[in-house]
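Progress note, project year one: complex with alpha-D-galactopyranose.
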Amino acid sequence: MLVESNETLARIQAQYHQVFDRTSSTVAERSFRSPGRINLIGEHTDYNQGYVLPASVDKAVYFVIAPREDDQIILRATDLDESYTTTLDDLSKPSQTWAFYQLSILEQIQKKGLKIKGFQAAFGGDVPLGAGLSSSAALECALLFALNEIFELGLDRLEIVKMAQKAENEYVGVQCGIMDQFASTFGKEESVIRLDCRSLDYEYFPFPMDDYQLVLCDTQVKHSLADSAYNTRRQECEMAVALLQASHPHIQSLRDATPALVLANKEILGSPVYQRSKYITEEIERVNEGCKDLAAGNLQAFGEKMYQTHYGLQNEYEVSCPELDFLVAATLEMPEVLGARMMGGGFGGCTINLVKASELDSFESKIRKAYQESFNTELPCYRVRIMDGSSEVVEINH
Ligand code: GLA
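Model obtained:
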């Protein structure tokens, strides 16, 4: 359980008390959080059964929630001043996106044959939306984590991760991998998680942030193309596997291929499947090499790999956009930046930058100015700290 003084949570708790009549639940409300995630290296490798290196951050979705005596479900979006009411019997798709994500979780609970009653919840948070920090996974994981606790469903963390991913695949319709939900649920303070997305074995690597810090630069480009292009990339990877399997039957996913094998099959794969496969096989190797850098305390070498990842995402996997490319290129002239790249699914959102802690202010002001001059748009920068994954929260100043 996390004990913290947190303004965001205090505000959501206050709204909960304004909105819900104290007689509607005989049980005291409890508070839960699931954080957004960053990813250091290993982009688009999760659904290829490769490795990823994410972490959960100090920006989260919070739920203040209690069971009800009846079967009503009342959801209150405190940041939007909107409510949505339904019952357990009616999970038809709502028009509000935020309610849509939450009903996806209720559907999974029903599909698993788990029993819950009605409940009332106020939620909100400080994960920037559409910025590539996986606010939707945080929302889904937070609700499922909370329901698991208040209704004593007996799910372990891995079951929560898998159900939240299925909710996204089946109800929301994005064929995402497992990284976001895993990071939000399993994150650990000042550590990154190397997750093997095939076996689901994982290992924490310390990522102390004394001399260097992580800064996200938000292009403010919302990735509207992302869902359809994401599913297309998945199909291209599946096509690569089918083509390689003809001569190498052991290949079940790109995880089983190497950059050398992909090169040897360049003609068979054709364009763009060859470029996609090249990037994925190299990126899977890069995660493991990057972990060696972290273990050796060599952040310089780690940062160079971040640039290599960006190069591949921009030119071979083709999921970047001019704004992201501009921000990464701008850091090449800045000695205080060890590494930078686009982060997450792509087509917008943030770059992640590994920046010398003593130079944070000057880094932010330089990059903001450059972005403003080129795109006439403000550039929000978020300094993120790596924090624990999903937890119950007790607010101390309430
Ligand atoms: C999105 C998906 C993840 C992962 C990343 C790209 O965030 O939800 O599963 O595939 O894109 O690495």
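The radius of gyration is 21 Å.
The first helix runs from residue 7 to 19.
No further modelling is planned for this target in the current period.
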